[in-house]
Amino acid sequence: MTTRNRRHFIRNLTLGSLAGLLGTQVQARTVTPREMEGPYYPITPQKDKDADLTQVAGKIGKAKGTVIEIFGQVFDNDGHALEDVTVDLWQANSFGRYHHPHDRSDAPIDEHFQAWAIIQTKAQGHFRFKTVFPGAYPLNASQQRTPHIHLKISKKGYHSLLTQMYFPDHPLNQSDGLFNSKTAVEQTLMTAKKTTAANQYRYDIVLQKV
């Protein structure tokens, strides 16, 4: 190998190694879009706020509706997974009613549905919870809100995030005012992904560093 060829070989090898290293680095992510809190953030104290919303501690019985599992990870906008993030979540029951004194709809109350959870992310930002598929709730006589789950996500050193998670391909998405006020990219970021497992969804969250 000539001196010139050897230099080219070493230069290409170095560039290739750098490219490989860069390829293994975390990649920047788009921050999860914000959304309004809604009128039914829980105000009734409850002790049971664990990751299984399908039953209430101290009661015999299970929540009515289709049981689903939601899992994901929380990242920062540089792509680093975040441990010990607080994920505060609440939703309507399978009939479309919130466990809230101001929800006066005619939909039934499900006393076996936990309705509210506050959980922490584990190693590599992982979180997981079990719930029931939320029902649509009425806005007025002719409109319903598409099924969704509310989330407040917080960690010291990051901007707190208030958002709503939507479900893929639900027919009410097309007529939901809040969902349709978002761009196509924002809708994608706010919509869970169906997995190959039955009744299981993945939803990743991205926080903005302060």
Please explain how this structure is put together.
The chain is globular, with a radius of gyration of 22 Å. It is α+β, with helices and mostly antiparallel strands and 210 residues long. The longest helix is centred in the N-terminal third of the chain and has 22 residues. The protein contains 3 helices and 11 strands; from the N terminus they run αββββββββααβββ. Belongs to the intradiol ring-cleavage dioxygenase family. InterPro entries: 3_4-PCD, Intradiol_dOase_C, Intradiol_dOase_core, Intradiol_RC_Dioxygenase, TAT_signal.
Quick description:
The protein is an alpha+beta fold. It has helices spanning 3-24, 177-180, 184-190, and strands spanning 67-76, 86-90, 116-120, 126-132, 137-138, 144-145, 148-154, 161-166, 193-194, 200-202, 205-207.
Estimate the helix proportion, in percent.
10-25%
Order of helices and strands: HEEEEEEEEHHEEE
Question: Unreliable segments (pLDDT under 50, ≥5 consecutive)?
Answer: 12-24
Shape designation: globular
**Distinct helical segment count:** 3
Mean of pLDDT: 90
**Largest sheet properties:** 5 strands, mixed
CATH structural architecture: Sandwich
The overall number of domains is 1
CATH class descriptor name? Mainly Beta
Structural class: alpha+beta
Distance between the termini: 53 Å
The CATH homologous superfamily is called Aromatic compound dioxygenase
CATH topology: Protocatechuate 3,4-Dioxygenase, subunit A
Total number of β-strand segments?
A: 11
Strand content: 15-25%
Rg calculated over all Cα atoms: 22 Å
